[in-house]
Task: inverse folding
């Protein structure tokens, strides 16, 4: 059966809350030698994005949205157990996200793939105050902070968080990566808020973090906090 037909079946089973039918689609892909990584990246993620798009545009009922996200979370939990782990990288990542269920689900997919790639991932979810995030970065000695699957309402807090990291001098040691959610829908937003890395999906996030450990946004490229820095320089 063609992949697009399977994806349509999967989507239909999710929004109707049909647990058995959704598992059957996943089982077919596993029997066709799809890896757990491919199922997460090429089936679960695009389906979640499609569901979110329809719901934002009032083309999907709240009931169907709840059915789909909760069933997809269950399947994501099961797929995590099938991921083949890589050798440890001794590389710590703190990952936060938007506070809603779909954002946490998107972030969980990113967490599972990053962990399978050998990173030590601390997943805090959404709704965490910036001062707690900054404190935790120091406590666990994280090399990367990831904000994944953020809502538009959380962008100002992310701006303030990156600005604060610069003020206290943590940005040379802590890389900031963003992706998913509003960062996929607003072109240039990642650069505007001063992120060092950005990705459109969980698999791409794994790639950019693993391949660019030294990349940092320069002061000239950052727009976040720029007005405040100019005012301080003028005052001096």
Result:
């Amino acid at each position: 059966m063609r992949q697009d037909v399977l994806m349509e079946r999967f989507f239909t089973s999710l929004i109707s809350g049909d647990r058995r039918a959704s598992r059957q689609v996943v089982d077919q892909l596993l029997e066709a030698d799809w890896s757990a990584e491919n199922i997460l990246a090429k089936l679960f993620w695009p389906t979640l994005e499609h569901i979110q798009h329809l719901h934002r545009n009032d083309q999907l009922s709240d009931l169907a949205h709840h059915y789909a996200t909760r069933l997809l979370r269950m399947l994501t939990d099961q797929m995590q157990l099938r991921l083949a782990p890589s050798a440890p990288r001794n590389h710590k990542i703190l990952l936060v996200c938007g506070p809603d269920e779909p954002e946490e689900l998107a972030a969980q997919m990113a967490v599972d793939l990053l962990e399978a790639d050998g990173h030590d991932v601390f997943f805090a979810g959404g709704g965490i105050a910036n001062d707690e995030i900054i404190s935790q970065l120091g406590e666990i000695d994280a090399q990367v902070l990831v904000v994944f699957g953020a809502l538009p309402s959380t962008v100002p807090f992310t701006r303030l968080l990156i600005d604060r990291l610069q003020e206290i001098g943590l940005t040379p040691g802590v890389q900031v990566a963003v992706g998913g959610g509003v960062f996929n829908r607003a072109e240039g937003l990642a650069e505007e808020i001063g992120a060092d890395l950005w990705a459109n999906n969980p698999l791409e996030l794994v790639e950019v973090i693993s391949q660019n450990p030294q990349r940092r946004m320069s002061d000239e490229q950052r727009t976040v906090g720029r007005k405040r820095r100019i005012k301080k320089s003028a005052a001096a």
Residues 192 and 223 are 5 Å apart (CA to CA). Strands lie at 92-97, 120-126, 144-148, 175-179, 197-199. The chain is about 55% helix and 10% strand.
